[in-house]
Task: structure prediction
Amino acid sequence: MSTKTTGTAEVRNTKQRRAVTGALQGLEDFISTQDLHRLLRDRGQSVSLATTYRILQSMAELGQVDVLRNAEGEAIYRRCEAEHHHHHLVCRSCGAAVELEAPDVETWAEETARRYGYADVDHTVEISGICAECAARDRADRAAASETGDPAATSDAAKPAR
Result:
């Protein structure tokens, strides 16, 4: 078993860590710990839910994954291709994500921190909405439901949670 030293932390390259890393590499969108655990289990990987949580937390601390919070406040994770600071636009329905460069945000954060005398400042900007594909699917579902006379089709109950 190999180990990797990162800063002051030493990370063991266990079978479970390799399974989690491999599963994340095959995904394009953010995923919750529980969904990732389910995916690993479906693939026949023997990784407990607690171990999956610990590995993802470790990967987040090492900067190996990006972490966002979904609409329910649950942490969701994704390995990102970009190795520099960036932000995301995330679909609240399906989890699809777009990596964003935001130089104006970077400038604003630096100027704001400097104005108040802060140093070593970090920031996270999360933009969420409903992607075009999910919005089209929602419109089609509502249209189909209204044709069948479903009164919930046009009510607020049929709209996605925000």
